[in-house]
Design goal:
The structure is a single chain. By secondary structure, the chain is an alpha+beta fold. The protein has one domain: Aminopeptidase (3-Layer(aba) Sandwich). It contains six helices and eight strands; from the N terminus they run E-E-H-H-H-E-E-E-H-E-H-E-E-H. A five-stranded antiparallel β-sheet has the order 1-2-3-4-5, with helices on both faces. Strands 6-8-7 form a three-stranded antiparallel β-sheet. A hairpin with a 2-residue loop joins strand 1 and strand 2. Helix 1 packs across helix 3. The chain is globular and about 45 Å long. The chain binds coenzyme A. The site of coenzyme A has 20 residues, from strand 5, helix 4 and helix 5.
Length: 184
């Protein structure tokens, strides 16, 4: 099991709560955020955020998926969300988004590093994978900054069209090496 909360300055990871639904709908409902993700609906229907948040508690209790609200460590404002699945789907183990007004502050990188540290620290996992659209270099850069190497390219369906994806991954050994280098 992963903990409910984690500090990953400049963000704090905490469970999503029902009161987050309007803000999730507002931020994730923006086309620029939804369009490069596999699963965020667009337009974002009323009630979808409530249902998504309610479902997370069940997924987490079963150990199938850990989803965290990404909040600013400064003021606690929710800026995005990140999910980690111990058993990868075709999209990999990790998925994340940050609300458009908060892009470029290092929030996704901090959150992803935090979740990767939790996964390797607390779960019996030897490697993590994730993928992003080739035309989404910001997501690729986040993964790269987390030590996720490019493993290959693959074409698959994205919202009804065939698109090119970059598949990235990091092994436990790579991660431990990265941490040791950063500590030196
Ligand atoms: C991808 C996303 C999560 C990045 O969030 P973020 O908090 O802005 O990311 P960070 O600030 O931690 O890092 C972004 C990096 O990408 C770089 N970047 C941004 N736009 C870029 C572009 N067009 N080309 C290359 N690099 C780019 C930034 O310069 C930064 O790298 P740097 O620190 O080396 O300068 C955010 O843009 C988002 O939510 N997009 C929509 C949802 C999505 O695509 N999710 C990922 C699905 S795989």
């Amino acid at each position: 099991m992963l903990p409910e909360r984690a500090l990953a300055f400049p963000v704090t990871l905490r469970p999503l709560e029902p009161r987050d639904a309007p803000r999730v709908q507002l931020l994730a409902g923006e086309r620029a955020v939804a369009e490069t993700t596999a699963l965020i609906p667009h337009p974002y229907p009323d009630g979808a955020a409530d249902a998504w948040i309610a479902g997370q508690a069940r997924e987490q209790a079963a150990g199938r998926e850990y989803t965290y609200a990404i909040t600013s460590s400064d003021d606690g404002v929710l800026v995005g969300a990140i999910g980690m699945r111990p058993v990868a789907t075709e999209h990999g183990h990790l998925g994340f988004w940050i609300g458009r007004p908060y892009w470029g502050h290092g929030y996704a990188t901090a959150a992803a590093r935090g979740v990767i540290a939790l996964a390797f620290g607390l779960l019996d996992i030897d490697a993590l994978a994730a993928s992003h659209l080739q035309r989404n270099p910001a997501s690729g850069r986040v993964m790269e900054k987390c030590g996720m190497h490019l493993l290959g390219m693959e074409k698959r369906d994205h919202r009804g069209a065939q698109e090119e994806f970059c598949v990235r991954g990091i092994t436990r050994d790579d991660w431990e090496h990265l941490i040791a280098m950063n500590a030196a």
